[in-house]
Amino acid sequence: MGHALTRTRLTPADFLAWEDTQAERHEFVDGEIFAMVGARRIHGIVSLNLASALKSQLKGTPCRVFAESMKLQVADDLFYPDVFVTCDARDLRTEQVFTAPTLIAEVLSPSTEAYDRGLKFTAYRRLASLREYLLIDPDSREVQLFRRGADGLFTLHDLSGQAEVTCESIGCQVSAAELFDGLDDLPGEAPAEGVLPPT
């Protein structure tokens, strides 16, 4: 999460009108605007892998998957989840702001991990429709799924190292191989100028 761009408190309508004129994406939390941190390459790969796998499996169902560029509203706050699935008829008719996701997934990075685990999850838990919250760390390959029980509380299921990630709320399974496909094929980072690689 970046630094607040304004200290002037806005309404969600004010924010939406303002952001429509911006080239970059921003989140709106507690009346303040925050610039989105640029995503790393591995973040984009994992987000796309997950969205593609879910889209294929949800074909023919009343659920749809959305990724990165769609806004999610929680009370007066507006977020951009990395990936989310909604089965709500109202959401499937909206053009801009979604309100009733069944599953939300965030791909972690060093700059956003605390935000995704903390403030964002706190906000997301207020969504009555939300059944599962999936956190994926592309660096460590750790996968953690928080699933809402009959008592309304979320329970952690650590799926790190397992062959499949099962999202019960939408009836989908994604293999770890598919989720992290392409990461092992990435070329190594070039050494900084003037720095020789180890021999």
UniProtKB/TrEMBL annotation:
Pfam families xrefs: Uma2
SUPFAM superfamilies according to UniProt: Restriction endonuclease-like (SSF52980)
Domain Putative restriction endonuclease: 13-164
CDD domains: DUF820-like
Protein name: Putative restriction endonuclease domain-containing protein
